[in-house]
Description:
The structure is a homotetramer. Chain A is 32% helix and 21% strand. By secondary structure, chain A is α/β, with parallel strands linked by helices. Chain A has nine helices and eight strands. In chain A, the strands form two sheets. A six-stranded mixed β-sheet of chain A has the order 4-1-5-8-7-6. In chain A, strands 2-3 form a two-stranded antiparallel ribbon. Chain A has one domain: Dihydrodipicolinate Reductase, domain 2 (2-Layer Sandwich), CATH 3.30.360.10. At the A-B interface, β1, β4, β5 and α8 of A face β1, β4, β5 and α8 of B.
Amino acid sequence: MDADVPLLIPEVNHEHLGLLDTQQATRAGRSGYIVTNPNCSTIMLALALAPLHHKFGVESVVATTMQALSGAGYPGVASLAISDNVLPFIDGEEEKIEQETLKILGRLQGTEIEMASMAVSAQCHRVAVTDGHLAAVRVKLRSKASIDEVSAAFASFSSLPQDLGLHSAPARPIIVREDSDRPQPRLDRDAGNGMSITIGRILPDNVLDYRFVALSHNTIRGAAGAAILNAELLIAMGKLK
Amino acid sequence: MDADVPLLIPEVNHEHLGLLDTQQATRAGRSGYIVTNPNCSTIMLALALAPLHHKFGVESVVATTMQALSGAGYPGVASLAISDNVLPFIDGEEEKIEQETLKILGRLQGTEIEMASMAVSAQCHRVAVTDGHLAAVRVKLRSKASIDEVSAAFASFSSLPQDLGLHSAPARPIIVREDSDRPQPRLDRDAGNGMSITIGRILPDNVLDYRFVALSHNTIRGAAGAAILNAELLIAMGKLK
Amino acid sequence: MDADVPLLIPEVNHEHLGLLDTQQATRAGRSGYIVTNPNCSTIMLALALAPLHHKFGVESVVATTMQALSGAGYPGVASLAISDNVLPFIDGEEEKIEQETLKILGRLQGTEIEMASMAVSAQCHRVAVTDGHLAAVRVKLRSKASIDEVSAAFASFSSLPQDLGLHSAPARPIIVREDSDRPQPRLDRDAGNGMSITIGRILPDNVLDYRFVALSHNTIRGAAGAAILNAELLIAMGKLK
Amino acid sequence: MDADVPLLIPEVNHEHLGLLDTQQATRAGRSGYIVTNPNCSTIMLALALAPLHHKFGVESVVATTMQALSGAGYPGVASLAISDNVLPFIDGEEEKIEQETLKILGRLQGTEIEMASMAVSAQCHRVAVTDGHLAAVRVKLRSKASIDEVSAAFASFSSLPQDLGLHSAPARPIIVREDSDRPQPRLDRDAGNGMSITIGRILPDNVLDYRFVALSHNTIRGAAGAAILNAELLIAMGKLK
């Protein structure tokens, strides 16, 4: 969360790479850049929010995650702790999602990132799934949008990595499913070779404006694949040689 | 959801049994009464909201459930469907929670129940747990309350079944836990012989006012035990002989 | 188990296709042939035993299976039945394994299959795994063989489908692993595109001669892939046009 | 496995406490005795074999275990290792079962235990179950016994702890179930407050004489409860004051 280090999701905030010039100025004597991966749950949430935020503005977001075991690394969670159980606590996770989302969706103003002006609430849970983080999300938008417009914003989302044809960039960063019982971790985590997130159950919400369920492969889009896509973007932009 | 049939949770809305007089007037020729159990997830949510609603007023509630397999009866969910997976859809469940909660927390006005004036949002998921429904909940209150007041409202909640000393009534309908990683289905579902719900992770929320995690044994407090407690209350009130 | 219908595993008993001539003679007026897939657990066991039986003769075999949920089809096993549990009963499974193995490993004598002369004991269990049947196996051999010879018999096993280069035939029908904790369903079921079985923990046994653990992808090698390989073999032999 | 230290299962080998006199003689200067608990899987197997061995003699036994997560202690097995999986390896477990069973079922001859003269084969697996070890067992008996005699030997088994009315001693050390799908870990582990083992699926076997499936609560009968029952026996015998 250092001010001059971008938390990069290539489809969402490639403009933040402008911070690298700042790094060179302030961290003199160092060659190379520091670019970091956001938390795996933040990647899913920020990628889901990006098209809504760009088109309609997001005023507030309420996300409840059900996260896979592989997100805890190895050995991670004890099998006895999670067997026939759900854990309602992942150390530091709720805070990370609430803070990183604001930075990733913020805008580069001169040499600084202005945090996005939205309220983010995260409650995080560990469930007995090998791979694939799920999030139940509600959003309140700044400008009015029909449910079809929300759905279209997700489905049509495309960005610089797609334009550049980066090798690891999925054709569609967000896949929208109409089936009432999707997305599901086991069935949808490998969509787009694990680099697409899947969104379903887009519905009007009684408290905020809309709700939906998002799914992402936490060790591909959320970790290893994300790092590779970051590197591919840096190379394509001439920042990494 | 018939207008003259109470959805009874003895600790929450025993006043609704006044509807039984209406039933006798309008359903002439029938002996006995109709009293029904709410949905198992609604019982947990309404029981958790009751002390907050009575003390501070609840303006809106956002609940995300992670529900156990036994809630689907037998044979219920196919093992192949839930293995290494989470299902983001339980047919009719979100609608039931959103509607029943308004009725249960409503007030009997003359011969009718006036629905509670609050917004309820529910997203429901099935997880690979045998027993114990979990809900991640955010609430917005009508009057200001400190986090200690919220916690105390939960912990001190007691009602007619406790006053009457009904056999199946738990000493404490709501158990508040301070540990950061509770409640958990396997560890907390049997609290109060399965008749207490357990609440933890009470925290300020960035979007609504407070958030917490609630847990209830879905086949005891949520079904069989609930029916017995209903009967015990009806007997104690002389409505059932 | 009809006498003139081969239970075909292409690598094990392609000679049994000689029965098709008998079928034509006795089931006059019918075009086409009847060839059936063995039970998915039998395929794994017979494939594992084939190289031992051909080289050393198998006198008796004791197999204890831990079978995946997908073997029961859909909806199959109720999630509530298998959650936090093992089921020690699969209807008809033990009998099928005990009988089919004798037929598959039997020899075509004229127009009939002479059952293999060995004793087979099977105990079958359902475990909470999506795909991949595991079997703990002990064997008593008719002629003396060192543990290295047993291991080499598995690893070097190759048969007609490999010679013919059939499209679905794995390069190695049996993969031998030396690691002490393999095979495992999740890690090894996709070996050889799900068409290879994996054998590990080959050790001397105190009661029979040797023991080992075998694993097979029950819906690929044990069902769909098996049917395709059967068809490929029939086409290559000019029996199917 | 020290020669003068009994591996005690009160119902099976209380005679081995005669070794305590030997301990006093040879470990001079020490007060107190050393009595140890066998491995949790051995306890189940030895308890199941005891009535057969005493009545008919056991010549050989082939046991294949499916062991619960709690047997590995805490944190024990990584959840990611066991999720959607079975592990065919528990370090040292097969050897322990094979050796300890011989000692427990052996006879005290003077100041030494003569190992039981039988062949024991164990293959051990870890499955995704919280509590309750399951074993698929085949036995070859020294003298002829009908299946009814085998079943009756299990069901009527009773020993010194039952005679003494020790507090933790279950009324029936072995419960025989006739249902074709029992025992099951989740349904049967708490039988006799976790101190009874449950045996089902008693059937003739094609390779050895009989087969059956046994289940024991590994942390009660297999650990904590076993230690308490040992202490109760020592007190009752005046060895512990």
